Structures
1.
Amino acid sequence: MRHRRLTLGSAVLATLLTGGAAQAGEVVEVEMRDYGYHPAELEVEVGTTVRWVNAETRTSHDIHFPEEALGSQRLFPEESFERTFEEPGTYPYHCRPHEKRDMAGVIRVVPAE
Ligand SMILES: [Cu+2]
């Protein structure tokens, strides 16, 4: 399984290299910091694993998918949560402790090319 760490700069580069969505079998990281998900919007192909990593120094967050009533426990700094997306669709999520701060994101899962 290939692993690609997405920072703000490399996310743009990765998009250019792959021609769009992350591909099946890949792991794409979303950082949680400054009460936000980075990137907040992400497009991946079916079969991609998204790993949310808490990059804060002391704040905990979670990842909650309200439409499916599933998600992570509270994640403390350096802890992570993974989900592999097997069905195309739009998956909005948010952080339950920080819902009022609009800490939210969305994963768009597209069919493999
Ligand atoms: Cu949060």
2.
Amino acid sequence: MLLSDKYPFLTNYFTTALSSSKRALPQSLLFYGNDLKSQYILATEIARLLNCKKDKSDNCDCLNCKWIREGSHPEVKTISRIDNKPEDDDSKTVISIKQSQMIKESLMSESEFHRVFIFCDRDTEGNICGLNPLNFQAETANSLLKIIEEPQPGVTFIFLTRYIDDVLPTIISRSQCFFVPSKAAVTYNYSVIENVFTGYFEFKRSDVFNISQKLQDLSGETAISEILSAIQNYMLFLLKANPNQTEIIKHIEFVEEAKKQADLGMRAVNIFDNLCLKIIN
Ligand SMILES: [Zn+2]
């Protein structure tokens, strides 16, 4: 499946960022969410857009696009505890300092390509997994900070993780973070909130606490996490129909934050008040 079909909104965002100006794309990106496979596909697609020598179309047959589809591009590298280890590196459970040094040394020389480093993990079957405090430890992460923040044309770092908190704050603060919705889990079922929340983008600022109250009332019978998932499903449903409305992506992230507050046991009134204040203008 073509990425532009699968993630029209994110693809659109990156295509616009990449075509408007060379500096528009941040040097460091972080993707988070449950669907690591899709994150990886998105990361390689960005690498392809950055390296394509022809029209950047989904079916482009230029050498760069071909290499990237085959996973053999010389400057688009997956960095994991398994991939791209220097010869003298016998670490097996972590992305190592030696790998970080290897990257730094490679950046000392010029390249005709746009270099992309995709940081992630792999399980024993080779499936893409996310970074976490065990496989991407502070020492290695901190050794990368200088090259991540120092503007260097033609270099992009992409970090993949399930939970944003699994990556050090020092990396997060230097990266632009994007929630990548799970393709597998999305059923767009939002019946729980249908009567209360559909058409929320037309609500008035003065409705904020009224809507929040209605959501709180639902939480008498339905778990808060379920209500929030339904809200998120509704937003994903909207996104599918309106792929250019990137503000919906922001809203989905706010709901993701609300889910975390629910996990921490915050009260329904606070969770829904906060959320409604953020997304109803
Ligand atoms: Zn191409």
